[in-house]
Amino acid sequence: MSQIVIEVGKQGIGATFQLSPRTERILGSRMGGCPRVSSVFISFDTRNWDFDQIPGPMWAQIVMLLTGLDEQRIRDFGGFKFVNPVDKEIFFESLAA
Fold this sequence. Notes:
It contains three helices and five strands. The longest helix has 12 residues, at 56-67. The chain is globular and about 40 Å long. The model has no long low-confidence stretch (mean pLDDT 86). A five-stranded mixed sheet has the order 3-2-1-4-5. The chain has one domain (4-94). The protein has helices spanning 21-31, 56-67, 71-76; strands spanning 4-11, 14-19, 40-43, 80-83, 90-94. The chain is of the alpha+beta class.
């Protein structure tokens, strides 16, 4: 199965997370018209934050918010990765939720 891909946009004191168009299509075809959150914004207290400061469990929680899937269903997809949509740099990747 295809891994869930989350695109990340860093913005000042936070970041916006959304499903990649391909992941959106795959989920739409497998789950029908189930409503999902279109994006999630996480803010931090400082402009000098980095992705390394995001605790591991928070990445999985963002995926669950965006997809509506539980941990087992995310594992069934082969896990997830967070990428920069411009250069495809991977910020975080997990084969399990």
